[in-house]
Amino acid sequence: MIQIAQWGSSIGLQSAMQELLADDFDPETADIRDEAVSTILMFGESIGTLTKHDLLSTELVNDWIWVEGLWARVGPAALKVREKMGEPRLYENFQALVEGS
């Protein structure tokens, strides 16, 4: 858990969060090419994958991270890239973590 938090810090998670929570951030125009969006998607997908395989507790993750709120901000970009690439598995574990919350 501590290493995941450290990893988040090393990939700029705090900066990405600030950008995503800014008043002028628009989830509907969010794009995977935006570093903040891709950082949150990568982190969320990683956490979702670990949770899916019972390596992290879903209850613990939901107590620690606001997964629903983050997905609400970056989910539209994930869905767009899924459609564009024709790959329904892109970011599926992040989405499943949110939907199972």
Descriptive report:
With 101 residues, the protein is mostly helical. It has one domain (31-101). Helices cover 68% and strands 0% of the residues. The chain has six helices and no strands. The protein has helices spanning 2-10, 13-20, 35-52, 58-64, 67-85, 92-99. α3 (35-52) crosses α5 (67-85) and α3 packs across α6 (92-99). The mean pLDDT is 96.
Can you give me a brief rundown of this structure?
By secondary structure, the chain is an all-alpha fold. The protein is 68% helix and 0% strand. It has one domain (31-101).
Order of helices and strands: HHHHHH
Output the number of helix runs.
6
| Main sheet attributes: strand count, strand direction, barrel closure | none
The pLDDT mean sits at 96
Q: Spans with pLDDT under 50 lasting ≥5 residues?
A: none
Helix content: 55-70%
Classify the oligomer.
single chain
Question: What's the topology here?
Answer:
Blueprint: H1 2-10, H2 13-20, H3 35-52, H4 58-64, H5 67-85, H6 92-99
Which terms summarize this structure?
globular; mainly alpha; 101 residues
